[in-house]
Protein 1
Amino acid sequence: MELGAVLVDADLIAREVVAKGSEGLERVAEAFGPEVVGPDGEMDRPRVASIVFGDDAKLAVLNGITHPLIARRQAELVAAAGPGAVVVHDAALLVEMGNATRFPLVVVVHTDAELRVRRLVESRGMTEEDARARIATQSSDAERLAVADAVLDNDGSEEELRARVDRLWHERLVPFEENVRLGRAVRGGTPVLVEPQPGWADRGARLAARVARVAGERGLGVEHIGSTAVPGLPAKDITDLQLAVTSLDDADALDEPLRAIALIRLPEITRDNPKPADPEPDHWRKRYYAGADPEQRVHLHVRVRDSPGWRLALLFRDWLRADDAAREEYLQVKRAAAAECAGDPDASRYVERKEPWFDAAASRAERWAASSGWSPPY
C-alpha cells in the first residue's frame, strides 16, 4: 500500500487458494466432482455457487476446505511482514464471518446506503434493483458500526477519503503499532471529565468481546465497569473492563494473548486498595493492563472471581446505576478531585483522592445489595 502497510486481502486470498493447480481446487473437485473445474483449469465459480447455494451442508463442506487454507495463507503473510509492519486485513465479510474480535483495531469505511446504490449503478452497470438486493444480503450499517474502532466517512470524493486515511495512518495506526511493539501502554493522562458519550456502552461491549475471545477457557466473564459503564455519569473518557479468572496464575498466562489485542501489562500495579471490611492486602491482588491505542483508552483489571475487588467493582457499578443520590454524590467527589488534580500529568493522585469516598460508601453499597437482592451477574 502507498503508505507502507502490508495488505492482507481476504478476497484475493480466497481466489488464490482455489486457483488453477492448487491444493484447494483439487479438494473442491474431489468434494463436488470434476465438472467444477473449467476448460482453462480454473474453478468454475458459477457452477460451485449453484451447488452450494441454498444447501447449508454443502456450503459447510466448501468452507471446511477453503477457510483453513485462507487462514494459513493469511498467517504466512502476517509472519512475513516482519517487525514494525502495520498489517491491514481487508475483509469485506468481517461482520458476517464473526471475525471482528480477532483484531486489535477495526476500521469501517462507511457510505450512506443510497449513495452506495447510486455508485453500484454508475460504476458497475448494475440495475437499481440488483444493487439494493446485493446491499440487503450484507450486514447492516448498525452491525458494521458496532464493531468499528474507527470510521472513515466515504460519502465525499476519493481525495477526501485519502486525506482521512492519511490522518488515520499518521495519527493513530503508526503510533499504535509502535506502542504495541515496544510494550508501551497509553496511560490515563490528566484527569478531565467529559459528559456521557452515546458510544461508551457499545465500545465497552466491543472491547469486552475482544478480551473474552483471547481469554478463552481461562476467562470466567468480562464486564464493562467503572464510570463509563454508568449511564448519565460524566467521566474520564476511558473504558474500564474486568476479566474474572480462577487464579492469578491464569491471569499471568494471558499476558501474551492480551498483548496481541494491544493490552499491555503494567507490572507495578498489583492490587487494589483494601477496604475496611476486609483489610488484608493479599485479598485484593489483581493484574492490570492498559491499551496501546492512542485514541481509545482502555484499562483492564484482571481479578479472581469471588475476590473482594472483583465483587466490589460490579457492586459499585450496579449501585450507581440504580441510586440517583449516590451517583450524584460520587459525581461531586469526582469533580472536586478533577479540579484539584487538573495540573497533574497522570491520574494517579485523582484516583487516590477518591479512595476515602469509596471506603466510606462501601457499607452503603452493601446495604443496597442486601435490600435489593443484588448479586454479581455471573
Protein 2
Amino acid sequence: MAIGMNDLKNGLTIEYSNSIWRVLDFQHVKPGKGGAFVRSKLKNLRTGAVNEVTFRPGDKFEQADITTRPMSYLFAENNGRVFMDVETYEQVNLPDDKIEAALKFLLEGMEVKITMYGNEILGAELPSTVSLKVTETQPGIKGATATGSGKPATVETGATITVPDFINEGETIIVNTEDGSYKGRA
C-alpha cells in the first residue's frame, strides 16, 4: 500500500531507499515561504542506523509488513543464539550481530519478540524491564539513599549498570532494557 508524507506516524514501518525503516519521530513543517514538508527520524531495522529524512508532498513509499513472533531464548551457539518459537517449537539460530543490543540483558529461558520482514529476521525485542542478579559490586554503604551518585555493578549477563550505593552482591535488581538504567529491587 503506497503512503505519503501525511500518513507518517510514530512506530510505522516503511520501505524506503532499499531498506526497512521504523518512524521514531516526525514533525510537519509549514514554513512561511515554500511548500510544507515532514522532517522525520527513521531507524534502519537492518543496520540499526538512525537517520533524519525530509519528505516532500510528492514522496510516496510502501508500508512494510513487519511481523513479531514470541520466541524463547535457549542457548548460545558459535556466533549466534538459538531461539524457539513458543507456538510451533521451531528453532531458529540468530547471529549475534542481528541482536547485539539485546545481548546485554538476555537470559536463558527469557521470552522475546523476534521481528521479521517476510522470512528475514530483523532483530529481537526484549521486555521493557528484566530482573537480573548482581554478581559483582563494591560493598553497600549503610544509610545510603537512592539519590546518591551510584556505583558500577556487574549483573549475571555481564552488563555493567550504575546502581545506588546501598545495593550489594547477590541482590536481584530490575533493569530498564532500553537504556540500561536501574529501576529498583526485584
Protein 3
Amino acid sequence: MGAGHAHRLYRHGHSPVHGLPPHTKLAAVFAFVLVVVSTPREAMWAFGLYALLLACVAYAARVPAGFVLKRLLIEVPFVAFAVLMPFVAQGERVDVLGLSLSVNGLWGAWNVLAKGTLGVAASVLLASTTELRELLLGLQRLRLPPLLVQIASFMIRYGDVIADEMRRMKIARESRGFEARGVRSWGVLAKSAGALFIRSYERGERVHLAMVSRGYTGSMPVIDEVTASRAQWSYAFALPCAALVVCLLGWTL
C-alpha cells in the first residue's frame, strides 16, 4: 500500500478535514451513522439538524454542494424502493392526492430516505476528503482483519488493470468489425469475458509468485505509521458528538 491511488470521489484539497488522520474520520463517520440510525423516525426535525451538521463539514472541507449532490444519485434504487412502500405496506390507510397510502409505509419510506441519504452523504464526504490509500491505512490502524485489508488493497490496485484490459479487448473486437447488436453478439461477449477471467487469474498467480519470491508471508509491511493526537480525535468526533446530542433530544422531546 505504498503507492497512491486516486479515485473519482476524491477531491484534492488542504482543508482541516483533509488533514485529519484517516482512521479518525472512519471512526467518526461510523459513529455518526450509528447515531442517525438510532434516531426515532418521528423526530423529523432531528434529521434536518443532521443535514445541517453535514453541510458544516462540507463547508469546512471546501466540498461544493453540487459535488455531493451529484454523487448522491447512487441511492436512486433505494429511493425507488422507498416510493413503493406506501403503496404495498399494510395497516392504516390515508388518502393523499386521491391515492390510498399506508401510514406505516409513509413512515417507513421517510425512514429509509432520511437515514439512507444522510449515511450516503457522510460516506461521500469521507471519500471526497480521503484518498483510497489513506482509507486502507485507516482500516489497518483500526485493527480491521489484515486479510480483509489486503483483499481490499488488491481489489483497488488491480481494478484499473482489469478495466484497462477490457478496454483493449473492446478495441481489438471493434478493429475486426465487431459491433454488439442483439442476441447474436452475446457469444462473442461471453468468450471475451471468459478470456478476461483467465487472463486475470493468470496475472494474479504471477503476482502472488512474485510476492512470495520477495519474502511475502501473509502480511504486508507497514510503510506509513498513521497516528492521531488527542486534538485530532476531538476535532473528528465533533460531528458524531453533536449528532448524539440531537439524537438524545429526539428521544426525550
Protein 4
Amino acid sequence: MTQFDLTDEQREIQELARRFTADRITPYAGEWDEKHIFPRDTIKQAAELGFAAIYVSEESGGIALGRLEAALIMEAMAYGCPSTSAFISIHNMASWMIDRFGDADVKGRYLPDLVTMERMASYCLTEPGSGSDAAALKTRAVRDGDHYVVAGSKQFISGGGENEVYVTMVRTGEDGPKGISCLVIDKDTPGVSFGANERKLGWHSQPTRQVMFDNVRVPVANRLGAEGEGFRIAMMGLDGGRLNIGACSLGGAQRCLDEAVAYVKDRRQFGKAISEFQNTQFTLADMATELEAARALLYLAAAKVTDNAPDKTRFAAMAKRLATDTGSSVVDRALQLHGGYGYLMDYPIERFWRDLRVHSILEGTNQVMRMIVGRDLLKD
C-alpha cells in the first residue's frame, strides 16, 4: 500500500519463517535451554529453506535476498528461540564473507557445504585482550611459502568446537586495522583446539568456546581479499550481523509482549483481571510503541545496507543499539507483569530475559554503537 509496507514476497518469506519456527523451534526451545542442547538437526532443517545462505549469491547456491528479508527471518525465528536464531545469523555472516570476498577456488571449496549446513561456520574476531578494541587483535599469521603460520586465540566464539569452519581475523602486518587479514581455517587443521564450553547466563542452545591456534598452517589460498583488508571485511560483515542481532531482539521481545498480553487477561487480582488496571494498559502501550519504533528503524537500516548507502554503517549501529536496548526493556517489563511467575522456568519469559541480555554486548557493544554514530555525525 505504501513505501512503509512489506511487499507480498517479503510477507511470504516472513510467513515461511514463522511456520518453521512454530513447528520446529518454539515447542522445543525450553528444553534446549534447560538441557543445553545444540539443535543441529533443526538448524540443518532451516538450511533446507535457504536460511543458511540468505544473502549468499545464487551463483554460489544461496537465495540472494536483501538484509531486510534476512531481518524478517531472524526476527521470526527469535520468536521461538533467540539463541538459535542468532547462531544461524552468525553462520550467514561468515558464509556471506566467503561469497563476497573469496575467489572462485575458496568459494567452490566451502560454500556448497555451508549453504546446506553440512558444515557450519563461525566468525572469529574477538580475543581475550581485544574486545571492543578489535583493531588491537594479536593473533598473528606469518607467511611461509604458500601457507600462513597462525598463532593466537579467539574468545567467545559461537559454535566453537562444534562448527567445522572458522572465518578468522589475523595480523599479517603492522599494528592497527591496516595490518589485519582474513583467513578461512578448518576445524580439523593440526594445531586448532578449543577451550571448555563457556558457562553462560543465556544462549544455552549454542556452544561458545575459545578457539586456539598453535602454529596452524593455513593455505594462502584460504585468504579472503588481499592482505590488510581483513578489518574492512570484518566490519562489513558486522553491518549485517548487527541488523540480525537487532532483529533477534525484536522477535524475542514481541514474543514476550504477546505472552504478557495473554497473561494479564487471565490473571486476576483484587477481583478483576489485571488487564483492566490502567497501569497495566499504559505499560503494554509503551512496550508496543517502543518495539514498533525500533522495528521501523531496523527495517530502514536494513534497506540502507542492502543498497550500500553511504550512511549504512551509522544506521546499522543506530538500529542495533535501539533494537537491543528496547528488546531487553520490553522483556523486563513483560517479566514484571508476570510477577513471581515470570521468574519461573515454567514460563518462557525468564529465558528470553537471559537470552536477550547479551545482544547489547555482542556484534559491538552498544557503547561502541554510540561511538560509531557520534563519530559519523562529527566527521568533516
